[in-house]
Structure formats: structure tokens, C-alpha cells
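Example with several molecule types.
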Amino acid sequence: MKKFMNDPQQFVPDMLKGIALANPETLRYVPEFNLIQRADSPSDNRVSIIQGSGSGHEPAHVMTVGPGMLAAACPGDVFAAPPMDYVYETTKLLASDKGVLLLVNNYTGDRMAFDMAQEMSEADGLTVRTLFIDDDVSVQDSTYTVGRRGVAGNFFVMKAVGAAAESGADLDEVVRIGEKVNSVTRTMGIALTACTPPSKGSPLFELGDDEIEIGVGIHGEPGRRRAPMAPADALVDEMLDAIVPDLPFESGDRVALMVNGLGGTPISELYILYGIAHEKLAARGITVARNYVGEYCTSLDMAGASITLVKLDDEIERLLEAPAEIAVRVF
Amino acid sequence: MKKFMNDPQQFVPDMLKGIALANPETLRYVPEFNLIQRADSPSDNRVSIIQGSGSGHEPAHVMTVGPGMLAAACPGDVFAAPPMDYVYETTKLLASDKGVLLLVNNYTGDRMAFDMAQEMSEADGLTVRTLFIDDDVSVQDSTYTVGRRGVAGNFFVMKAVGAAAESGADLDEVVRIGEKVNSVTRTMGIALTACTPPSKGSPLFELGDDEIEIGVGIHGEPGRRRAPMAPADALVDEMLDAIVPDLPFESGDRVALMVNGLGGTPISELYILYGIAHEKLAARGITVARNYVGEYCTSLDMAGASITLVKLDDEIERLLEAPAEIAVRVF
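Resulting C-alpha cells for the full complex:
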């Protein structure tokens, strides 16, 4: 294993420290609870949106904290749910008169931590709601889930509820929007290589030289099947054939199309996939009205990509268009 | 080799097509000359900034076209200089009363193509200047260069001359600014793995399981030495010990610090490097006033990173702060 790090046990804290040093005016890092929060949050004028999950999926979620997005992120160690007391402390720190919304990708370990933290916070008199994201169409129940997994589509839920919260919407309305966006968001991913967790030091699973995992999870969980490597055209077909009928997305629909890199795939390849997917959707009568190409939810150094579609209406488009400022900057 | 592509020969055109489909209102793709240009350029009110280079370094440069940055990018095939006639045609297409500035990373193949294109354009009566970027401190002469190589520091030159051009500066002034920024910019990179060009299908060079290349070039060219993998602390020291004395950067200086991923390294590791570099510079009395963490100039799927320092003054800071809109979007 070759990774830029000092101590595998300090991988997450060292990353969080770097993020904080890079954003001294806008973000605050609270080492004792491993959290990154907006320096100007909480505010009683807006619902506090918090997302937690295992680390290793950056920029999700510690780099998507900021105005119009998350009030705080509460990460666990690499591929590990955050401890319930960290979620609880984060919730208390971000408590707002308007309430707190916890966003959770649907994994059993995360659900447990967040459910318990919500209970503990409510016992303190806080108003807390939780929203589970489950956009991955690849498998129904999975290694670490009952039901579907939450993957890169969580970006759209975060963005929409972040915009609603920023505009002063109340908690019920923010929850309604989050549930609505999650209900029209579908994702599927393909791994070309495994990923290597810092503490393990070796790949999490084995893939042959010409082998790929179709429907991979963001922790390397098995998807639908192993297959031989194939041209991008065929891989995009495979993903769209799973995603499009699932909602279903239909001729005449306007969609947001995300091509998300899983960590080790260069952006050149993501744009190749984007061009193919855009045209294949057009051939199905589906219009790509908004596009997202880059890394949004990764799996450490895994080479691979996922495709996400969101069915748009005027309300969702307005929320996705709303300004947001997050810690990941291009320039 | 597992890459998301259809045909290795169409890697670059398929990527450019994807970029164009993702940015239909702001960018124009001209397939016969492999170029991406601003839809609203040329304008006789501003110098047209063009950068060309081999592909495989994305987002440089085809994804950094837009207001406040490049008027056009003129890429060659992967790791190959653009043909001189493509540079010539791009220059003619972007001709402006205020003139054209060609930005070229200092590689012999690129210099030849751009020198000839400049001559041909001038014979047509166009006003064209060329600026060579050579920020890499790793080696003096290199596999493909006489003098130093141009690497990720080219971002700062692009950004500064792009801002100056956007504000209406004349060609002499834009050139002065570009030369000034190049003269105070220094970079060094480290490869943890090789990269695999699509047409070659196998890694460009061999690195052992615990071996790294210190001072690597962005085409995998040898740097200063092979070394065993080391903790991030030691690697940052190695890079800063080469970069800082070179200008030199001194106690009291304000700098921009870029940690650039080479394509296969996740952003989590880049922020670990950032945190370390920020603190080590502070210990030398050097203040990081602006920071850039992400992928700016890559080497296909190479795992690795480079550090760039730019010595700031009020003029350079103002140019780096100026707004710019490019095709790579985070949200």
C-alpha cells in the first residue's frame, strides 16, 4: 500500500485538520467529536442539516459543508459509521430552533448510530428528524443494508435540503423536499479495481486483470455480478438499463445526470462516460437538463464510476440551481 | 488495462465530445482541430488566451476554458503535442484585435508546434505572443525538455493572464503578468504509481510495490531519484526542501499553496498533504494566504501529488481572486 499519510489510525483526523486549515474562516473542526461544521452555524433561522457516514467517500460529506449545503458533517473512521455519541454531540452543537435534519445513507451501522443519537437528542428536548437515502438500484438487500444502499445520489438530497434550509423552510418542508428528491433519484456503479483502506493495507477484494464488478457498493460490496471488462458503450448501457426502468424515467422527462468518479478514475474517462450517457438518454427521449461530472461520493482509491439520474420538476431544478458554497474549490 | 473508453484512438475526441455536451451554451467543440473554445470568443475587447498541450492532464487545459481563464484549449493526443496546424487553426479562429497569447508548458515537442504556429499566424498578419511555463524544480534538463518542465503551476499563470485579459489589459501587459507569475511559481511532484496511456495499454514505467519516484514529470518522466515509500511528513519535507530554497521563498512571504493530485490519488490524501505542508510552511515563517487542493494538472491515472508555491504580492493576489467560470464544476 502506498498512500500519502503518516499514521493509518490518524488518516481521518489528519484529513479533517487539513480541511480546517484550508478553510479557517468558514469551517470549524472539533477534534473530540471528529466533526466539521460551518463556522456560522447553528442559526435559529434555519434547519441544521447534518450528514454523517464512514469516511473514505470524500468529498462526501466533510467537504460539502457550507452555506446552502450541510451545517455539519460527522464522519466515522474509514468505512465505519460514526459513533453514536459523536452524532449526538454533533446534533447538540448544531441544535437550532428550527430543528435538525440528519441525513443518513442507508447502511445498518449508520442507521443504528443515528437512530440512537436521535433518541438521545429528543430526550434532551431537541427537535430532530432523520432521512434515509437509498438511491442505489444495484441490489435490494446488501452486505451492510436492509433495503437499498445510499450512494452518490445523496448529493442531490443534500443540495436540495441545503437550499431549502438556507431559504428558511421549516423542518417539515425540508423533510418533504428531501424525501421527494430521494424518491426520484437512482444510481448504479461499476468498479474497475478494488480499494485499499489505510488500516487494512491491502485491497478490500480481488478483481482479475480483466474483471469488473457491476453494481458495486461504495465500500466495495458486491453488486449484481462480475463481468469481463467491456467498452464504455456497453457499460453505460448496463447502468442505464438498470436505472431507467427502475423509476421509471420516461421519454419526455427532464433529468439531472451525474457521472461520479469512485476515486481512482481520471476525469477524462468520466467525460467519455458522460458523452455516451447523454446521447443514449437523448435516444430514449430523456433530456439532460443539468449535468454533474466529477467526484461526489468516492470509495477511497477505487477506479470506477457511477451514474445517477434525478427526475426533475420545477421545484427540484430551482433547489439544485440555488447558490451553495462548499469547501471543495476548483479555483 | 481497464479504462472507461470505447476506442483508445478516440479517447481524446470522445472526451472532448463529452465536455461539449455537458456545456452546450458556454463551450464550442471544433472536431476537425480538436479544440474547445469559449462560445463567446474571440472578442476584440480582450486578448485571446490559448493553451495547448498533450492530453491526459485534465482538467488542464480543455476543462479550464471560460470567462476569466482560457479562450480556447488546443490539446494533442494523450501525452503528445498538438499538431502545428491545429495550433495555427486555433490561433486563427481566436484572432482578436488585442492579440493572442499562446501558453505553452516547456516541452520540446510543444515548443516546436507552437513556435511554428506562431510564425504561420504572424505571416497572416496576426499579433501573437508565446509564453513558456517552467515551474518544475525537480530537474534542470529532462527527457522531453531543455530547461525545466511546465507542470501544475501553469494553473496560476492561466488564472492570472485570464483575469488580466478579461479586464481588457493589452497584450504587453498580459505577457508581463504571465512572465511575472511564472517567475515566482515553483512545483515538485511525487509518483506513487505509474500511469497507463490508453493506446499503450500497460504502465508507462515500472515502480516497485514500495517504491516512489521523487520529482516525477507529468508524463511519467524520471525525476531526481527513486526512493522507498515514506510517511507523508517526510515526502512533504522532500518537496518543500526542493521548492522553498529555489526561488527562494522566505520568512515573511505570503504564498498560494497548491496540492495537486496526479489523477489516481483521492482528495482525502491531498488534504492530509495540505495540512502538513501548511504547518511546515508556517514553521518557516511563510503564510499560506490562498490554497488550492484538488486535481489541476494530472497524469492520467497516476497516483501521486505535486506541491506548488506561488509568491504573492497585491497584484498577483488580486488576479487570483478575480472571478472565473470554467467547465469543471463541483455543483
